[in-house]
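Write out a record, fold above all:
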Amino acid sequence: MKRIIRTQSAAALCLTLGVIPFPILTATDVIFLVQPADATVTAGHQIAFEWNANMVAETIQATWFLGSTQIAAASGRVCVITPVAADDRKTVHAVVRGNAKGLGSPPVGPTATRLAQLRVLPAGTANPPAITAPAVGAILQPAIGAAGNYPTFRATGNYLSWSYRYSNEPEGQWHTYAKVGLAAVVDLAVQPPIPRPRTTTMTMRVTDDAGVSATRTWAINLPNTAPVAAVAAFAPPHFVAFRGHPMQIDAANGLRRFSSDDEGDPLTFRLSGTNPDLVVQADGSLVYTPPPTPGPTANVVAGQYIANDGTADSVANSIVITVMNGPGDLNRDGAVTAEDLQVIIQHFGETRTVGQP
């Protein structure tokens, strides 16, 4: 879940910080989802700060401060500054106002974000990029549902750009985080693509404004999810079961085509319940022998099957097979009679493309 911190009212926080308080429009607090993060930067290099809150985007207004001085050019969610040596140990924060999300969208603010501590190194001082959080050996949690999961990624360096990749993606493929210059990223969900083996890792890379990079890799906690078995439908022109005759479907064309597993685990298959006319093999191949009783062409639920990934079963789903009378029923009236012989005589010597009537 996102890191949620409820702030004090603007007046209480400003008095605590020794800043001139702003008038209060309402007693409703702002819940900040992203806060300005402490940062170290070399004098003359840019650094960015960001905030966000559960407010209606169109109503948001922000005023940024470096120490007690308003930053004239900054008014949105992201503030970019170029500190000088005299700014060392000053703080950066925003005062925000707008309308809260929810019933009635009540007005909130002005309310101050937390203070970010700014450390400014003397001009020319090396400040190589380095990732500081999560710690080495930490295990990341994947996104869960719509809310997702948002670890806090922190790094030091001058005006960093962020990129990341997962080990189950093609080598050399990197995703670029849209916002540049931040010392912390807290709104990035861990979401490796499917299929995702349980050994999947995430690598973060930060690159400073001189093109120097640093990386760190973490394991991802990927609990097993049950496989999914979809309806397995076998129909013409490739699959037809004739009444009274066994139809065999090999593993390559069998149940494996209708099943999936998020972790990419090998699947095995079995019949759900019993049906003497249907045999399901572990590799997904099957044999179905429909009863010999004549009848019209129909899609028959031959039975149900279950896929297993070695740990969990899927929900059972249907095997649907198109069944028709044997090859002798040429006029498709549901029975083999002398009239079918007349069809042979009538069309004897003709050439037809398979699948045409």
Remarks:
- Helices lie at 10-17, 338-347.
- The CA atoms of residues 86 and 120 lie 8 Å apart.
- The chain has three domains: 5-121, 130-220, 228-347.
